[in-house]
Amino acid sequence: MLRTHYPFYLANAPVTCEATLDVTDKYNGQIATRVSLPDAAALESAIAAAHAATGEMRRFKPYARQAVLEHCVARFRERRDELAYALCVEAGKPIKDAAGEVTRLIDTFKIAAEEAVRINGETINLEISERSAGYHGYTRRVPLGAVAFITPFNFPLNLVAHKVAPAIAAGCPFVLKPAERTPLGALIIGEVLAETDLPKGAFSILPMLGRDAGALVTDPRLKMLSFTGGLIGWDLKAKAGHKRVTLELGGNAACIVDGDQGERLDAVVDRLVFGAFYQSGQSCISVQRILAHDAVYDALRQRLVAKVVALKAGDPKDKDTFLGPMIDTAAAERLQAWIGEATEGGATLLCGGQRHGPMLEATLLENVPHDAKLQRMEAFGPVALLQRFGTFDEALRIVNDSDFGLQAGVFTDNLRHAMRAWDELEQGGVIVNDVPSFRVDNMPYGGVKSSGLGREGVRYAIEDMSDVRLMVVRDDA
Q1: Is the pLDDT of residue 477 over 70?
Q2: What percentage of the chain has pLDDT greater than the value 70?
Q3: In whole angstroms, what is the distance from residue 365 CA to residue 44 CA?
Q4: What is the pLDDT of residue 243?
Q5: pLDDT at position 475, please?
Q6: Selection from 99, 27, 117, 110 nearest residue 74 by Cα
Q7: Three-state DSSP class for 243?
Q8: Average pLDDT over residues 198-214
Q9: Neighbours of 221 (CB within 10 A)
Q10: What is the mean pLDDT of residues 415-434?
């Protein structure tokens, strides 16, 4: 069960105030709990505390950072059921998927604990000519300083973990603004962090309204902004001044099914259905565009429709539910309107398309017009588009005909096709023989084009949150 009220965290300490933010059960719309709502003064205090903690966090030894992260791993395991239930309620995520996200939270902190004690530099040979004889170079990584994080609603545990855990490993104090619709997971993480001996000011977790959080972007005391969310991220980058910025801004992921996949089409369909409709399609790497070769198109379409209409939708607290609600009714209404636009433009609705409040049926369409929103933009919901192709070159061209480039999937037994996809697709990652929705928390993850810049994955995030410091020694002086 959820508590009736949750505090926010300011400079490592819980703070309760009269102003509150309602957190609703996304399935039934009822208020599930409330959280204290920080104001502009709290944000200023958090930034000042993080800035003041920079030196102490830099001196906080790697083994001490590791101990903090290992404590979090142990406590998250103990509180696994509580975390999963909170996630199920605040995000409407089916309980089985919520339990899986708790596992990923634990994995991410575990990886960060391992990386905290192996942040190494290198020795550089500077004797490349007679001019530099006797000189040797050495580098080490040092924390960047205080950093700012803004996270979205769809993975309230794991996307927070991918910012918080590397910051602790790197030795960076941070201020985090979780999504106001799903703040509980971040606040429970804050509760666990408050049990540790992190230096005062090392972390603040402020579930603010976005319009009140501008200082996270503009304040020069914060040396980095890491933002995961919508295309507004480019506007934030323009306002960020001299700070380092990483952005993960979504996509409209495509998956190619090559003509040689006929013998294992059932397995391919199982993965496509998972990739497209897992957590109601509210994932940046949800399968949105399915491209099937002429040789398998008709059989794939038939099997896809049969699988999709059989998906169980309903209360996410039911362990048999696969498809829960979208984040709110407005999001479902927006996507239903996009479906209507596509069908009015000539698309064929193969199944789904109906809405009941925030519940939108799992939907498949084909022959969607090239300029329809469902083709050009991120659906971020339980909708997938099906189209055929004749040659592999045509499929690559269709995938690249997008403003986005996060991840793509390619089902093929042709090694040459797999390698060409890796070479030619304008994507941050290419997943061969699986859907683009696949992610493991230690791999480099991020996009190109409108999908953002920079890479997540614990080690890569640690590198982003640190600077290289050089020392040159002349040994013959």
Answers
A1: no
A2: 100
A3: 49
A4: 97
A5: 87
A6: 110
A7: coil
A8: 96
A9: 16
A10: 98
237: phi then psi, degrees, rounded to nearest 5? -60, -40
CA–chain centroid gap for 139, Å, is 31
The position carrying tokens 């996060």 is 406
**Among all chains, which residue has been given the structure tokens 């575990």?**
110
Other CB atoms within a 10 A radius of the CB of residue 41 amount to 8
Cα angle 319, 325, 329; round to 5: 160
3-state secondary structure of 157: coil
| C-beta neighbour count of 292 within 10 angstroms | 28
Q: Which two tokens stand for residue 284?
A: 């940046």
Query: Which of 345, 355, 351, 350 has the alpha carbon at shortest distance from 375?
Result: 345
**C-beta contacts of 212-218 below 8 A and 24+ residues apart:** 212/39, 212/40, 212/43, 213/43, 213/150, 213/177, 214/239, 215/40, 215/43, 215/44, 215/47, 216/43, 216/47, 216/148, 216/150, 216/175, 216/177, 217/148
21 vs 191: CA distance, rounded Å: 18
pLDDT score of 459 more than 90: yes
Query: Which positions are catalytic?
Result: 248, 284
274-285 burial by CB neighbour count: b if 16+ within 10 A, else e? bbbbbbbbbbbb
| Amino acid occupying residue 77 | R
pLDDT for 251 equals 96
In the numeric block, which tokens belong to residue 244? 């380092």
Whole-angstrom Cα distance, residue 291 to residue 91? 30
Question: In this structure, what token pair is assigned to residue 443?
Answer: 């791999």
Residue 210: both structure tokens together: 């976005």
Within 10 angstroms of residue 468's Cβ, the number of other Cβ atoms is: 11
Judged against a pLDDT cut of 90, whether residue 379 lies above it is answered with yes
CA distance 430 to 435: 9
User: Contact, 261 vs 296, CB < 8 A?
Assistant: yes
Per-residue model confidence (pLDDT) at position 176: 98
CB 409 within 8 Å of CB 384 = no
Q: Which two tokens stand for residue 45?
A: 């205090």
pLDDT above 80: residue 476? no
Among 136, 30, 25, 150, smallest CA distance to 89 is for 25
pLDDT band at residue 1 under the 50/70/90 scheme: confident
Residue 452 φ/ψ, nearest 5 degrees: 125, -165
